[in-house]
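We were asked to recover a plausible sequence for a given structure. The inputs and outputs are reproduced exactly as logged, with field labels preserved.

PROBLEM: sequence recovery
POSITIONS: 484
GIVEN STRUCTURE:
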């Protein structure tokens, strides 16, 4: 019986499934890792264990596999484990995929688990466990050291929403976990729940409200006094799903929508703001308040970057889309709630996976770290073909105050995964430290962890940790210091 993955762009090259669990000590290191770097680099990736049931599938539908790279005393070890969700367990019992269209339970095999989540979008340490998250369900808890799956995590019965964000924020001053759920009462519902959970796991705040319609809210933004919900014009229609269609559909006629909720308020206090139509709000870099206004920094694209969720009419080809790091300004006292983002950087370039020094989450700040793409830089098209989805050929450090961007480009066969900032010390100045990122060699099909010093960015990595097998493209992760 044949057991092969399809020869499509979703399952080849950068996206060829890896399917490996591993324990490796003393990884090979080129260069020197500073003695101050002590902790664990956590990351999760969608990595399917079985060929797709329907012949092809999108990247986001892969089973969640967590990688933990532990650094300390100049040595590096690595552990990799799949999150043992009910979905994956059921597939292993059947020895095949049981799930159909992404986030569409109506297309699943009758043997599929009722819980459809893959827990494949981010991992974050909270209250003694590692939480693997995907926005379609509650988190799954793992052991911080062994990565063994503990189980579904409802914060000791305190969280009642059907879903939970994959982009929680940790408030620097309190250590509280700020989080939310969309489609919070189930698929296709416009309900949103906002939560604040203490560092010790106590539910401190819960506010429920409704959006004008059900749509994707992948990330959100927080400030000292407000939370901001960017509603992407990817809408949900249960009737479409029942007919076998996609969970999300791009609606270019809809404006980019933002809901702004006072953290000390109630549902009736929310205000809605409207951005240009046919725009895609990316991941939040950071957000803050100043002079009575709210500012949110994020990449924004002039169209649908998720080609696999096309509009009802003919889709816009991805080459027509432009994107850049942008700043939104919201004045809660204004009578006109139509807003338009402004470029942050002196030179605009496609970028994504932005991260800040998270000791400054929700506060006025200066520095961001992100993945950037420059089409003018060399790429080995002869051997590698076209650029893969989510291809970024530079690591970038941007000063959001001056608009100046510094970049490191490693060569014509490499691309990067999300950069994660590591402060030089607990009391180091903002942005002073290192950035770690997985770098993929597309030609040799190898991966490594590169570490850059933020004070000497353009010199490239001070250390390169060789991973003895190829890592599939991942989504998100976090740094967990040894000393809290």
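RECOVERED SEQUENCE:
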């Amino acid at each position: 019986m044949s057991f092969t993955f399809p020869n499509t762009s979703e399952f080849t090259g950068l996206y060829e499934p890896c399917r490996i669990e591993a324990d490796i000590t003393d990884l090979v290191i080129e260069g020197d890792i500073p003695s101050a770097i002590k902790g664990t680099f956590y990351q999760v990736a969608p990595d399917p264990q079985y060929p797709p049931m329907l012949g092809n599938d999108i990247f986001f539908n892969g089973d969640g596999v967590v990688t933990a790279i532990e650094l300390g005393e100049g040595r590096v070890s690595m552990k990799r484990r799949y999150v043992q969700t009910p979905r994956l367990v059921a597939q292993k019992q059947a020895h095949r995929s049981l799930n159909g269209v992404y986030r569409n339970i109506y297309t699943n095999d009758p043997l599929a688990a009722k819980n459809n989540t893959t827990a494949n979008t981010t991992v974050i340490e909270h209250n003694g466990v590692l939480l693997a998250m995907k926005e379609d369900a509650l988190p799954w808890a793992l052991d911080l050291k062994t990565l063994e799956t503990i189980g579904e995590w409802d914060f000791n019965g305190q969280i009642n929403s059907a879903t939970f964000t994959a982009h929680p924020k940790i408030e620097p001053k309190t250590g509280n976990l700020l989080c939310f759920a969309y489609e919070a009462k189930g698929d296709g519902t416009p309900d949103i729940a906002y939560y604040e959970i203490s560092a010790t796991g106590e539910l401190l705040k819960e506010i429920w409200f409704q959006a004008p319609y059900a749509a994707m809210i992948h990330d959100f933004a927080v400030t000292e006094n407000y939370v901001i919900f960017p509603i992407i014009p990817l809408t949900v229609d249960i009737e479409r799903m029942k007919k076998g269609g996609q969970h999300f559909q791009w609606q270019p006629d809809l404006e980019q929508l933002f809901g702004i909720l006072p953290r000390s308020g109630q549902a009736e206090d929310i205000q809605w703001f409207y951005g240009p139509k046919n725009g895609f709000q990316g991941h939040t870099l950071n957000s803050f308040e100043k002079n009575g206004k709210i500012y949110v920094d994020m990449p924004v694209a002039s169209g649908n970057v998720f080609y696999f969720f096309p509009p009802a009419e003919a889709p816009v080809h991805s080459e027509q889309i432009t994107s850049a790091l942008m700043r939104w300004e919201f004045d809660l006292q204004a009578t006109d709630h139509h807003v338009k983002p402004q470029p942050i950087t002196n030179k605009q370039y496609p970028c994504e996976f932005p991260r800040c020094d998270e000791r400054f989450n929700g506060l006025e700040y200066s520095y961001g770290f992100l993945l950037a793409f420059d089409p003018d830089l060399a790429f080995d098209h002869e051997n590698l073909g076209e650029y893969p989805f989510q291809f970024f050929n530079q690591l970038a450090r941007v000063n959001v105050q001056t608009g100046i961007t510094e970049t490191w480009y490693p060569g014509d066969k490499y691309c990067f995964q999300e950069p994660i900032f590591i402060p030089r010390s607990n009391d180091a100045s903002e942005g002073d430290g290192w950035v770690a990122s997985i770098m993929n060699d597309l030609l040799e099909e190898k991966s490594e962890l590169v570490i850059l010093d933020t004070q000497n960015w353009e010199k490239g990595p001070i250390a390169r940790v060789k991973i003895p097998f190829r890592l599939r493209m991942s989504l998100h992760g976090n740094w967990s210091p040894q000393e809290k």
